[in-house]
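Escalated from tier 1: zinc ion holo job.
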Amino acid sequence: MHLKSIQQLELPATADMHVHLRQGELMELMVPTVRQGGVDTAFVMPNLVPPLTNVDQVLDYQSKLRTIAKDVNFLMSLFLHPSITPDVIAQAAAAGITGVKMYPQGVTTNSESGVSNLESFYDTFAAMEKHGLVLNLHGEVLESLAPKDVTLEEAFLPTLKTLHERFPQLRIMLEHCTTAAAVEAVRACGPTVGATITAHHLYLTSHDACCDPFAFCKPIPKKPTDRDALVRTIVSGDPKFFFGSDSAPHPLQSKTSAEEGKAPAGVYTQPFVTQLVIVALEEAIERGTIKEEDVTQAKLEGFLSKFGRQFYRLPEASNKVVLERKGEKIPTSIRSEDGSIEVGISKVGTDVFSLRWV
Ligand code: DOR
Ligand code: ZN
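Tier 2 regenerated the structure:
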């Protein structure tokens, strides 16, 4: 597929298996941007304030999201916390909740009530395995726990292996994987273990993330070789790896007014998620990381739409999007009608396909 010269592309709707849609006014602004990015199915993260630690809170949140966007399938998650007992897992399964997200305590945005000792949740994991809920891992250790010269993600990988060995039937997602080592670790596990890959980790490296608050996120983008390993993973067509944007909006003001290195973590890509994956592949072809012919229609469809639905046991997409080159560029930000909230978008000014639903 000669991506650069293609003027029009038709794809099944994207399944974005990791999104942050926030709450209140920010949620109102964010939710309509899900469809704009070509997405009809979104796995929604529970790191709200307060975090979603019971079934009623999750269902209440889901109904708010549905009111704003009736045509998106919102897959919901609980925030792993001592209140998530095996009984709560049974209730969650009955209520149609899809997963439970584990944040190590203090590792990222709104994770202060996250987990410090995973073993204390083994009964909960056993219940999840039994009821078919997915365990979604923020796969990083705290900085204080990582050996010198090992990334926070790589230091977490033995824990992934331990969990998989202990709960082989539990479906586990290593969210937003960022290193060649993580890809290998996921490949080494059985078919119950998969990983999401974001758009931004396909084009950002630590060099960008260090100094641009709009490129700063967790996990921090890594070396060019890690970025390239993620790109190659996508074109390998391995169904264990699929799209989860980790689009994570923060008010523009909080990004621009922060001292260097203190901006809130999160890259906002939602209105252009499908297009940004394609941009990243185009850039990888230009760099020589992959060849034109490595990108095929089937591999794009697999990564963006099919593999995620398969892992989450959903039917294939019934809607399609058409992407056309019309000279559209990514704008600086999106803002609410009264201008009170503004969120900066990643990769401002980049030429992208224009997207419409068919
Ligand atoms: O960069 C990130 N932002 N990583 C996360 O894990 C959380 C997210 C957020 O909620 O802002
Ligand atoms: Zn996230």
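The chain has a mean pLDDT of 97.
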